[in-house]
Design brief:
InterPro entries: TPR-like_helical_dom_sf, TPR_rpt, TTC27/Emw1. It comes from Terfezia boudieri ATCC MYA-4762. By secondary structure, the protein is mostly helical. The chain has 6 domains: 188 residues, no CATH class; 219 residues, no CATH class; 76 residues, no CATH class; 70 residues, Alpha Horseshoe (Serine Threonine Protein Phosphatase 5, Tetratricopeptide repeat), CATH 1.25.40; 86 residues, no CATH class; 113 residues, no CATH class. The protein has 41 helices and 5 strands. Strands 2-1-5 form a 3-stranded antiparallel beta sheet. Strands 3-4 form a two-stranded antiparallel ribbon. Helix 9 packs across helix 10, helix 12 packs antiparallel against helix 13 and helix 30 runs antiparallel to helix 31.
Length: 957
């Protein structure tokens, strides 16, 4: 059974009284946010105090690792209490870092004064902090160089990542806290990093396995729900949208959340006279957890589960819309005022009973965990759909539901942030969205910034809280922060600057970027508006020493700057050491100049670790039509970061151009693993498989198969048919890939057409029928009958005629013969205009169905198509003669047959009803018409003329 103390930190439950142990006191201090007490404790000081006074630039992380080894005794004598105490220091440092960079309120202490030797001067402390930030770089990607209180995160990382914690499993929650720490590290960097992805999912997989076995926090459903939500957030970040959605749905089942997005009649504008359907999220938590006042720690119910009461007294400032047209919130029609025909969209009875009873405008408060589920659902909607107004309209109801009755400070903050992002694209809500984002930025800055030494505090857009009662305590702010996609203060400010750029406020955006010293973003802003020279100058000034101003130069005005000559500019030397983000700056310079030299420089400066440099170089060579050089660059990039889907895709394209089908197959398979919804990757994978099918076989080893398909026989067991088996397998795998691609891009006729061709080459006739049906459905309005592949359709009909039984048509299940009949009657028949081959196929199918009358009519239509084609010069004379002979044969073979639907009545003497009593007359007429044309055009005696005469003699008998 898990120790209750470590799970108190996860569940939020108070430590039960009395708990005289020092460990219980530490847990209580972490819960209440008294991190200074833990960091100043003798045990913590023994970890951060170096063994000997620092002589050079103090290496905080190295000293920490050495002290941990000494204090903990290399893990040999570390029992549960010792390890938990050890971990609590790391948790306190991690939470303090989040408090100082994400949630606030300001720390009550200065970490540098606690964690660094007192002998260090202020400048030396800054050097130590800068060194720590540089060491947070992963795969050449540097963290933000002005991270406040980075020592706290370094302390947390040094402790929670120490190998001593892997020597046993006494502290069950250790891996969870390490997961949180590593995921926060990933979020502080730009783009997914393979190294962090691997360590994060190592702990995720371990915890998932324990959860599936039932020995992960057994009996603590709220703890399990927290983990499922956090895992969904990790999956969303790394692009595993399907897993994220499944995790959120499972978390909702654990917490008992019931929700549905539906439509309810209401008004959105002030002048709207008629109620129309409005999107709304109906949601209800399992229990009502909200009480007026401050939450207590948590109480155990009868089943031993922890139920947490949440506060509802404080929340961040919210700006009103104040629009002359739009209402502040949707005014939903009261149910008693609805007409008998006014129901929730589609069918109200499909909703659960508990949701059907809810008043959309006055829904009960949600438990904060349930609110985090709804907020993360907006992320999955955004990632799974195009960035359009429809997607944002679908996201908005989730945010509004959370904001309606939010019961936690940080949950409400993220709800406001999600709404800001949605509102930034509408003219009537863009102003509120921008100002609210500005208010959130000011809130975060004010709530995470320590007062300066003179006591001054940062200015804010809205008045700061006057008393502590107007602001939420540390405990409430951190309670659910790990279940929320909460950005850091610098990320939020950068988002505000980007919003200003989007609405044309370039000056304000540049002020923000310059204050944050995000020189790369400053340069990108200038480059985006066509000021490449300004952008180039900014980047070069960060990387190269300035050109000294000549003593002879005299400025013409106060603002005049010396402009170096081209030779002086080229002679500038690099600054050493280079800035943390030097690889990115060199790459941006390469983008501005479109010069591969700067990408190579970025690669060298990063010590061959900055994957983006090689990605940019690959893109450059790809645009220059140099696929070999591009492939080499992308390969080098992917050796560092294997999570970049675009790099795998473009590497696959390079391999296609180089006719390296095996390499292309491998690359596109990687893309489909990273994003199984990429239709182009599936289609290109199929292309590689098909090319391999036609190329010489180089290996007969077992190959990886696509999902949800039967395993094929290993080609190494097939003896002399190895090559044919491999070709067939490649075609089958190609078909599977194309079927996946067509399901993702259902309206792309080219993918469907490729599916049709590959299915016909195997052959897989059911897929042929389905693909042809879809191709015709898409292309028929514009291409008419030319969209029909007559050759493949003929093969399909032939297969049905020879292998299927007409009696299959009366079976209730779907069969190939049914699919084919539906295809011919619903899709092909309405399109036939002048292609006689299609009428002949219709005739063969009709005869197979024992419909000779219909078959003969189809032959007659085919003959008319040929006749009209001859008259307008679209058909050759030989085709006319062949069609005439075929028409006569059809009259002879079908004319005397019994007509379908009009068989003998069973009475004696009943007359037999023939398909065509006058078939001889019609046959002679067809022959006379054709032979008359021939004599008139001087074709007598040519080609099949003898066959016409033989047919004419046969009719005389």
């Amino acid at each position: 059974m898990p120790h209750p103390l470590e799970w108190n930190l996860i569940s939020g439950a108070d430590v039960p009284d009395p708990q005289p142990s020092s460990t219980a006191e530490l847990v209580s201090s972490v819960q209440t946010g008294d991190f200074a007490h833990i960091l100043k404790a003798p045990f913590t000081q023994s970890l951060v105090t170096p063994q000997s006074p620092p002589t050079e630039v103090f290496d905080f992380l190295k000293s920490l690792r050495e002290r941990i080894d000494v204090v903990i005794g290399n893990g040999k004598e570390a029992g549960y209490e010792k390890k938990l105490e050890f971990i609590l220091v790391g948790i306190a440092a991690l939470n303090a870092f989040i408090q100082s960079n994400v949630t606030g309120p300001p720390l009550t202490f200065r970490p540098e004064e606690i964690l660094l030797p007192r002998a260090l001067r202020r400048s030396e402390r800054k050097d130590v902090s800068d060194k720590v930030i540089r060491e947070l770089a992963v795969e050449g990607e540097a963290a933000y160089h002005l991270i406040p209180h980075a020592l706290l995160f370094a302390l947390a990382k040094g402790i929670l990542s120490h190998p001593v914690l892997d020597t046993g499993e006494e502290v069950e929650s250790m891996r969870w806290w390490r997961l949180r720490m590593n995921f926060l590290h990933q979020r502080m960097l730009e783009g997914e990093k393979t190294a962090l992805h691997d360590v994060v999912y190592k702990d995720v997989d371990y915890l998932v396995a324990k959860l599936q076995r039932g020995d992960f926090a057994p009996g603590m459903k709220w703890v399990q729900a927290r983990f499922l939500i956090e895992k969904a957030q990790v999956d969303t970040y790394f692009g595993y949208e399907k897993a994220a959605r499944e995790g959120l749905e499972r978390a909702a089942r654990v917490t008992g959340l019931q929700y549905a997005i539906t439509g309810v009649l209401g008004k959105r504008t002030k002048y709207q006279e008629r109620d129309i359907s409005q999107l709304v999220v109906l949601a209800r938590s399992k229990e009502d957890f909200v009480k007026s006042g401050v939450k207590n720690g948590g109480e155990k119910n009868g089943s031993g589960e922890v139920e947490v009461e949440v506060a509802g007294g404080t929340k961040p400032k919210t700006l009103d819309l104040n629009d002359d047209t739009l209402l502040e919130t949707i005014s939903f029609t009261k149910k008693e005022n609805m007409s008998s025909t006014a129901v929730i969209v589609d069918d109200e009875t499909k909703l659960p009973e508990v949701l059907r009873k809810l008043d959309p405008g006055e829904q009960p408060p949600l438990h904060p965990l349930d609110s985090t589920i709804l907020l993360l659902l907006t992320e999955t909607i955004k990632n799974n759909n195009p960035a359009t107004g429809i997607t944002r309209e679908q996201m908005a109801p989730y945010a509004e539901r959370v904001l309606k009755h939010s019961t936690n400070w940080e949950v409400y903050t993220i709800g406001l942030l999600v709404r800001c992002r949605i509102e930034g694209y509408k003219s009537r809500t863009a102003e509120r969205g921008l100002l609210q984002l500005q208010a959130l930025v000011d809130q975060v800055i004010a709530e995470t910034t320590l007062p300066s030494e003179n006591g001054s505090a940062p200015k804010t857009f809205l008045p700061r809280p006057k008393t502590e009662e107007e602001s939420a305590p540390v405990r409430e702010r951190l309670e659910y922060v790990y279940q929320l996609p909460a950005p850091t203060r610098w990320e939020l400010e950068a988002e505000l600057a980007n919003r200003w750029v989007s609405i044309g406020g370039l000056k304000t955006a540049l002020e923000i970027y310059e204050r944050l010293e995000m020189w790369a973003e400053v340069a990108l802003c200038y480059a985006a508006i066509g000021k490449e020279d300004k952008a180039r100058k900014i980047v070069r000034n960060q990387l190269l020493h300035p050109v000294p101003t000549p003593a002879s130069w005299t400025p013409e005005s106060e603002d005049d700057e010396y402009k170096p000559t081209q030779m002086e500019e080229a002679a500038r030397l690099q600054i050493y050491p280079q800035p943390n983000n030097a690889p990115r700056l060199w790459s941006i310079l390469g983008d501005i100049d479109n010069d591969p030299v700067w990408y190579e420089m970025a690669w060298e400066v990063s010590n061959h670790r900055y994957a983006r440099a090689k990605r940019s170089l690959g893109r450059y060579w790809y645009n220059q039509k140099e696929p070999l050089k591009a492939a080499e660059a992308y390969t080098a990039s992917l050796n560092i970061n294997q999570l970049n889907k675009e790099s795998w895709f473009l590497l696959g394209c390079c391999r296609l151009e180089l006719e390296d089908w095996e390499g292309g197959e491998y690359a596109f398979r990687k893309v489909t693993v990273l994003d199984e919804e990429d239709a182009e990757a599936w289609s290109n994978l199929a292309s590689c498989l098909l090319r391999r099918a036609s190329a010489p076989v180089t290996s007969t080893s077992t190959r990886e198969l696509l999902d949800d398909e039967e395993e094929l026989v290993d080609s190494s067991l097939t003896g002399e048919n190895d090559e044919w088996t491999d070709v067939k397998r490649n075609r089958q795998d190609a078909l599977k890939a194309l079927k996946k691609a067509s399901s993702l891009k259902y309206d792309n006729w080219r993918i469907w057409e490729n599916t049709l061709i590959v299915a016909a080459s195997i052959p897989a006739y059911t897929d042929v029928a389905l693909a042809m049906n879809r191709v015709i459905s898409i292309r028929a309005p514009t291409a008419g009958e030319s969209c029909i592949d007559v050759e493949i359709l003929s093969r399909l009909i032939q297969h049905v005629l020879t292998s299927c039984n007409p009696e299959d048509l009366i079976e209730p299940r779907s069969t190939l013969s049914k699919l084919t009949i539906t295809l011919m009657e619903d899709q092909v028949l309405p399109l036939i205009t002048k292609d006689a081959r299609l009428w002949r196929l219709m005739a063969r199918l009709a005869l197979w169905r024992k419909r000779p009358k219909e078959a003969l009519e189809c032959h007659e239509r085919a003959f008319r198509c040929i006749s009209r084609g001859w008259e307008v010069g679209e058909v050759k004379w030989e085709e006319v003669m062949e069609a005439t002979v075929e028409m006569v044969d059809a009259y002879q073979g079908l004319g005397e047959m019994e007509r379908e639907g009009l068989a003998n009545t069973g009475k004696e003497g009943a007359e037999k009803v023939m398909v065509a009593k006058d078939w001889r007359f019609k046959a002679r007429s067809a022959l006379r018409k054709t032979m008359g044309w021939g004599r008139k055009e001087g074709k007598e005696g040519e080609g099949a003329w003898d066959r016409l005469e033989e047919a004419q003699e046969g009719l005389k008998a």
